């Protein structure tokens, strides 16, 4: 049963009833919804047991509702990689701090586990199950293994074996390596059921650019902007995208491909940098030497001082959260002034949801006026705006390769909009007509053959 993340991205949570055991994978918050719609539909389980709680990685749309789930299942053990547990200390604190801005007091009063004094208890319930290791649970009947899934530090795909049946849940995944994070590893096929993300399931030439070519284009764009005495704003997610972009830009400066100008970072992204540096020998890292702390960084001013930042007066590179310019974030406020400067540039380096301010800004045309978020007035678009793709998710071709290698009888599509799922489902059936494909709705039970 999908409790969230069925036919959409957000509030990802999936429940498996396997050999009499209840296994819950992930519990995320939906970034664009408010009230109880932002949380997984735990009530749909109607008293079904949760014997084991597994977390794939530390992004909020997979982790943020863990304290909420614990209110219904307070004693369930929570498994996660050591990297994810360390990142959770930062990410859950951030989720708790944002709740008052997103939900009514009635909802907040029903969420005692998000109090700052209560969060440590959730972290203490987490048990390390590291990449490349397995755990036999439920009296030896169910075996769970964590495989590196790429995507971000410590992210895992989950392999479940029980009574001769094999299920692989990819979580967010990517077969290609990034700058700091390796590509995914997979169990051996054939398996019975593959539950896979489908974020990039739609054919789009924008997604097929190689990382190398995109990096060349990004460096060229930054150089052109700096030469014109302008500054570059790069909206990033504090977890994953910041560390990747910071390292690639640091490489370019070190190689003489970019001039040495101030590089601004800040907020919780800096704390996450420290976790990446702590886990240099992680199985999800590409090497054990690249430390973000080796790259000289200037401190991004706090919100009330953003508009007085030196980057408005001297050529600079600003890496600011969030990647989709969610309202209230540094990138959201900076964009409102950045857009007014014709010699400035905004570089989007990842996916932007159509419902977010980032989508509006990233698709804006110079010479027009736009309004986003809760802005009272339009802002003129004078700056240069460029879109790049450094996706931490599997490309469409990689998703198909996962299916090819695992040879499942049944493919279940998750973590994608309906357009992406439909397109990718059709592609699977074109290449493997003997397979069954389904895209579960939230709150409905499905068996191995996809029937409810």
Features:
2 domains, Metallo-beta-lactamase, Chain A, 6-stranded mixed sheet, 28% helix, 19% strand, alpha/beta, single chain, 21 strands, Rossmann fold, 452 residues
Structure description:
There is one protein chain. Strands 7-8-9-10-11-20-21 form a seven-stranded mixed beta sheet, covered by helices on one side. A six-stranded mixed beta sheet has the order 1-2-3-4-5-6. The protein has a six-stranded parallel beta sheet with strand order 14-13-15-12-16-19, sandwiched between helices. The mean pLDDT is 94. The protein is built from twelve helices and 21 strands. A hairpin with a 2-residue loop joins β9 and β10 (165-169). It starts with a strand and ends in a 14-residue tail after the last strand. It has 452 residues and is of the alpha/beta class. It has helices at residues 60-63, 66-72, 82-102, 105-109, 119-124, 211-227, 241-254, 268-278, 330-338, 357-362, 396-406, 418-431; strands at 2-4, 13-18, 21-25, 52-54, 78-80, 126-128, 134-137, 142-148, 156-162, 165-169, 193-197, 232-235, 263-265, 298-299, 317-320, 345-348, 369-370, 379-380, 384-387, 410-414, 436-438. It has two domains: 2-203 and 392-438, Ribonuclease Z/Hydroxyacylglutathione hydrolase-like (Metallo-beta-lactamase, Chain A, 4-Layer Sandwich), CATH 3.60.15.10; 210-387, Rossmann fold, CATH 3.40.50. α3 runs antiparallel to α8 (268-278). Helix content is 28%, strand content 19%.
- What characteristic shape results from the CA principal axes? globular
**Oligomeric grouping of the chains:** single chain
Query: Which CATH-level-2 architecture of the largest domain?
Result: 4-Layer Sandwich
Fill in the CATH topology of the largest domain. Metallo-beta-lactamase, Chain A
């Amino acid at each position: 049963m999908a409790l969230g993340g069925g036919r959409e991205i957000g509030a990802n949570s999936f429940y498996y009833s396997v050999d009499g055991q209840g296994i819950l994978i992930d519990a995320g918050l939906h970034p664009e919804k408010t009230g109880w719609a932002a949380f997984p539909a735990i009530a749909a389980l109607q008293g079904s047991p949760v014997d084991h709680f597994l977390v794939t990685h530390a992004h909020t749309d997979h982790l943020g509702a863990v304290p909420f789930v614990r209110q219904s299942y307070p004693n369930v053990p929570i498994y996660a990689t050591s990297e994810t547990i360390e990142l959770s200390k930062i990410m859950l604190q951030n989720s708790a701090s944002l709740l008052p801005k997103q939900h009514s007091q009635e909802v907040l009063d029903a969420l005692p586990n998000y109090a700052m004094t209560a969060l440590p208890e959730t972290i203490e319930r987490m048990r390390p199950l590291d990449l490349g290791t397995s755990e036999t649970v439920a009296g030896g009947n169910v075996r769970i293994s964590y495989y590196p899934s790429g995507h971000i530090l410590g992210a895992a795909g989950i392999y479940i074996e029980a009574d001769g049946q094999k299920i692989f849940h990819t979580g967010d995944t990517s077969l290609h390596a990034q700058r700091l994070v390796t590509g995914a590893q997979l169990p051996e096929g054939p398996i019975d059921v593959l539950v896979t993300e489908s974020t990039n399931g739609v054919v789009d030439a924008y997604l097929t650019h190689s990382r190398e070519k995109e990096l060349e284009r990004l460096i060229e764009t930054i150089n052109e902007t700096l030469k014109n005495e302008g500054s570059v704003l790069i909206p990033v997610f504090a977890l994953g995208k910041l560390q990747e972009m910071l390292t690639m830009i640091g490489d370019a400066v070190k190689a003489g491909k970019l001039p040495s100008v101030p590089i601004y970072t800040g907020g919780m992204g800096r704390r996450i940098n420290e976790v990446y540096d702590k886990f240099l020998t992680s199985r999800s890292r590409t090497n054990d030497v690249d430390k973000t702390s080796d790259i000289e960084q200037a401190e991004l001013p706090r919100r009330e001082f953003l508009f007085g930042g030196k980057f408005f007066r001297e050529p600079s590179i600003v890496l600011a959260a969030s990647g989709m310019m969610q309202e209230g974030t540094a990138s959201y406020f900076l964009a409102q002034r950045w857009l007014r400067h014709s010699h400035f540039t905004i570089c989007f380096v990842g996916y932007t949801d159509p419902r977010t301010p980032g989508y509006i800004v990233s698709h804006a045309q110079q010479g027009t006026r736009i309004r986003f978020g809760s802005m009272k007035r339009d802002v003129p678009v004078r700056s240069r705006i460029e879109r790049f793709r450094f996706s931490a998710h599997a490309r469409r071709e990689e998703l198909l390769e996962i299916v090819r290698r695992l040879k499942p009888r049944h493919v279940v599509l998750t973590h994608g909009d309906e357009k992406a799922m439909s397109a990718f489902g059709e592609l699977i059936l074109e290449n493997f007509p003997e397979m069954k494909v389904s895209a579960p709705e939230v709150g409905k039970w499905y068996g191995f053959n996809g029937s409810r």
